Amino acid sequence: MHPSSIYNSEADAALLDMLTGPDRPTAKTILPRRDAALDPLLIAAVSASGPHVTRNHYQHDFFPGVMLPQSEGSWDWTKFTGEDASTKSERKRLTYVSRQAPRRQRLGLDDTQGGKENAIPLSPTENLPTSHQKKRRSSLAQAIEERHRTTQPESTRPAHKSLPPLEVKCMARTRIPTPHGPVFLHIYHNNRDNKEHMAIVVDSAQFSGLPAPDAPPHIRSRTLDAVWSEHETEMDRITRGAYVGRLSPTSHMTSQPSEDLVSLHARDHFHSAHQVTGLSDAIPSPLIRIHSECFTGETVGSMRCDCGEQLDEAIRLISQPISIPSQSSFTASKTLPGRGAVIYLRQEGRGIGLLSKIRAYNLQDLGHDTVTANLMLGHQADERGYEIACAVLRDLGLGNLDGTGENVRVLTNNPDKVDALEEEGIRVVERVPMIPRSWKTRNPQLVDHVGRVPIDDTRVAGATLIGGGAVHGEDLDKYLRTKVLKMGHILPLWLDNPEQ
Ligand SMILES: Nc1nc2c(ncn2[C@@H]2O[C@H](COP(=O)(O)OP(=O)(O)OP(=O)(O)O)[C@@H](O)[C@H]2O)c(=O)[nH]1
């Protein structure tokens, strides 16, 4: 036998011994491992799940900050007394680097037109003034003039050539009981920004099923009632709110995808049936409000502005029953439930965002008014747009575009809103003013020690929130006065002291 084959047989015998023998080989006798130190599959899995895979990966510099000793392993955060400023400046922050091309490139957008109008979903720095906004105005009068020039409704601004037509889709709706009666809350998505705008629809007649022949059509979302996929189930439709009547454990009826046609038919039927009596003309058009988000006013109950009160008052006014006087000696008078909608737009702080609004409040505490404070921060006095609101209105059958949809009455003092709606083809047949409650109810004899006017003893809590009463205070007076005197709101000024 050849010596090398003997050597091989010995090695093989040792290997066999190691694998099968009763005694495990010691470190001295063990043969070098022949298997791979790391499983290639494991390596592939690890490399496939780098920081680009998930936004919640630890390499994002979120709380707790990476590279802080406290962030390693479990640590008692109750002991944290703040990061040492010196170590913070030395600490090199890890940054998240996207491997995708910039969104602008991926969407094939032209980079030459900056500004909000391009409606790219907002980045976290959106609230910071851009360089062109940082330009200081020489005088307030000039700035206000400029604001009137630049804050036209979005529809009148030059449309971005690469933007697809605006689309909105109602993703879900549900019944919400409120102090003013039930409403349907609708959540909308759109292809212009990454915000969830909402519609609060008041139409309690819907609870009794399909519209009665002598009643106005239901206010329903076309996109919600549409068929979303051939695979959608009845439960899918019910879960997203595409039902008629009222849901209960024992009753649920899905809406028909052709709801659009049904409601159009119902509207035609309604109008022709009542042309003779004139009843259809006697029923007022739905009352709507376009409302802009105000976290401080609506959630915290801030008395710096009247936003919480306006949202509450709008739902209350829209929910008021409608009395239809008798049209002839043959017909009796009627009372219909209130109908309409509040379109709730996520354009906090008149479009400048919550962060900037909070900074503006500090400037207001230094004595500046709401308009000047915005301008000092490099913003316009009002940066809102109403294109999405109009698309939502049309989806709800409120808009009367191309002969479809109803005319509307609009609750506002803001002439810009009426102009914006009309630019978009929404037919506004009446502007209904919103008089501040405190102006309507203020009577020095009634003011209690916290400055609240007890207009209704049953509604004393949460003064500026839903279901609240009337409040007034120095900040609110100043804000309301500025709206009338500087922002052109159509409201007869009520002042305790006009010199203030
Ligand atoms: N920048 C800024 N925004 C504010 C201030 N106070 C309220 N807002 C925002 O203003 C918006 C409400 O606008 P208003 O001017 O009160 O009312 P309007 O909607 O223009 O007009 P109406 O329809 O008559 O109520 C909300 O987005 C609030 O967050 C403020 O002091 N500064």
TrEMBL record:
<keyword id="KW-0686">Riboflavin biosynthesis</keyword>
<feature type="domain" description="GTP cyclohydrolase II">
    <location>
        <begin position="281"/>
        <end position="433"/>
    </location>
</feature>
<keyword id="KW-0378">Hydrolase</keyword>
<comment type="pathway">
    <text>Cofactor biosynthesis; riboflavin biosynthesis.</text>
</comment>
<feature type="region of interest" description="Disordered">
    <location>
        <begin position="84"/>
        <end position="163"/>
    </location>
</feature>
<protein>
    <recommendedName>
        <fullName>GTP cyclohydrolase II</fullName>
        <ecNumber>3.5.4.25</ecNumber>
    </recommendedName>
</protein>
<dbReference type="GO" id="GO:0003935">
    <property type="term" value="F:GTP cyclohydrolase II activity"/>
</dbReference>
<dbReference type="Pfam" id="PF00925">
    <property type="entry name" value="GTP_cyclohydro2"/>
</dbReference>
<dbReference type="GO" id="GO:0005525">
    <property type="term" value="F:GTP binding"/>
</dbReference>
<keyword id="KW-0547">Nucleotide-binding</keyword>
<dbReference type="InterPro" id="IPR000926">
    <property type="entry name" value="RibA"/>
</dbReference>
<keyword id="KW-0342">GTP-binding</keyword>
<dbReference type="InterPro" id="IPR032677">
    <property type="entry name" value="GTP_cyclohydro_II"/>
</dbReference>
<dbReference type="InterPro" id="IPR036144">
    <property type="entry name" value="RibA-like_sf"/>
</dbReference>
<feature type="compositionally biased region" description="Basic and acidic residues">
    <location>
        <begin position="84"/>
        <end position="93"/>
    </location>
</feature>
<dbReference type="GO" id="GO:0009231">
    <property type="term" value="P:riboflavin biosynthetic process"/>
</dbReference>
<comment type="similarity">
    <text>Belongs to the GTP cyclohydrolase II family.</text>
</comment>
